[in-house]
Amino acid sequence: MTREELYSNIMRKRSFLCVGLDTDTKKIPAHLLKLDDPVFEFNKAIIDATAPFAIAYKPNLAFYEGAGLKGIQSLYKTLDYIRKNYPDQFIIADAKRGDIGNTAALYARSFFEEMDVDAVTVAPYMGQDSVTPFLGFDGKWVILLALTSNKGAQDFQYIQDPEGRPLFKNVLEHSLEWGGNADNMMYVVGATRAEMLSEIRTVVPDSFLLVPGIGAQGGSLADVCKYGMNSKCGLIVNSSRAIIYADSTENFAKAAAEQAKAVQQEMSSYLK
Amino acid sequence: MTREELYSNIMRKRSFLCVGLDTDTKKIPAHLLKLDDPVFEFNKAIIDATAPFAIAYKPNLAFYEGAGLKGIQSLYKTLDYIRKNYPDQFIIADAKRGDIGNTAALYARSFFEEMDVDAVTVAPYMGQDSVTPFLGFDGKWVILLALTSNKGAQDFQYIQDPEGRPLFKNVLEHSLEWGGNADNMMYVVGATRAEMLSEIRTVVPDSFLLVPGIGAQGGSLADVCKYGMNSKCGLIVNSSRAIIYADSTENFAKAAAEQAKAVQQEMSSYLK
Lengths: 272, 272
What we know:
- 2 copies of one chain form a homodimer.
- Chain A is of the alpha/beta class and 272 residues long.
- Chain A is 44% helix and 15% strand.
- The radius of gyration of chain A is 18 Å and the shape is globular.
- At the A-B interface, α3, α4, α5, α6 and α7 of A face α3, α4, α5, α6 and α7 of B.
């Protein structure tokens, strides 16, 4: 999916909501557990319920790999289901991969050809050759970790170099020297420090930012938009737990739709 | 496996060789491709041939995930094969994972319970809560990326903080504050800058280091031992391509054994 297509989906649906499919058999409604593939059935219901209010889905691979082979099967079925029924949804494999060049190239083929997702999250620690192999696929995206929403983001991402630049800013700046641009690279920037978004916009004014940390992690959507939105939206805001686990009864899909709709309506008010 | 058990295996076999199972269907001998699971058959033959000379195996998950569901099946079969036939081998899942706390906990369960490997490689960018969930498993290990062997290691890992400490040293120092110690944490340190091993030993004198970059990537085993060995060896040196792809004919396993044996004999000369 191109940047223009993504922007046009956002404006048409008046939403920049990404629903995180962090599907955990310990948390899904009990009545689903007797089905053959509870994880897929849960995802299918959540997707059908939330698709009108969302423009992206983001399965976090840990939740699928954690269930072994069966989990990977549920993931593939979920990806197929989205592609066939909601081809305008942007699919993000939240994998946070990062490895040396020849291995990164394998991961890239795995995600962009085998799984056929639109984007994959990549960790920057190993530098250029761990990222560039993901950049050579038409209409596919790298989403590079810059400033994450977790407590541990403090440990290294803010460490300043002798010129006073924090590591996350070094990551942004280097990525632009690697052939990353607003048409093939986005950045993960947590909502828990929304004011940092202004600083990030000085380095990557046009790029889309994937913003986790709304909802369960406590970030404010209003602040994210105030500090991070650009003239073409430039934001994909993710919510996982607050939507998909809004209710744990047979009513779960309806409750998820209501939550997603509430977020979408707030988003609509921030879009021009 | 405990540190004592690992050290005792090293002394008994006079080897600290880890064979990297970076198994790529594009590179394995053609005659295997007509079998039902060429990747598993290749691994099985390589393992049988090299086990006398090695103390560890390290499948890089990218190579298995890259082949989709079938690849994951080959991985599980390989892990089972090693555990059943060579229970004294230390198994490292080279996954370079790194995610927020609740997700890291899922990955930890996936690797240590579902796959039942001894160790998993973890990326440090997201800090403490992305690493500590891997530390609570008896006899299991985190192998934290510190200084990698690829070209991109230059980009961020050497960036100095205002006190002149490079990022990789910050990673080592912080990890010791997180409950990491020589009995549950190792570090990836590339062989391509063997002289940096002395500096690393000032921070983690007792810890095992997993050293890639010997062989295809050009690092010197003599230098690695000179700068990095401690009184209990403290090194696991990985070689992948130079061993497993030593020969591309039906003779591949014998050739791999010869390469592994040559490395083992050199290793033996460095062990006290």
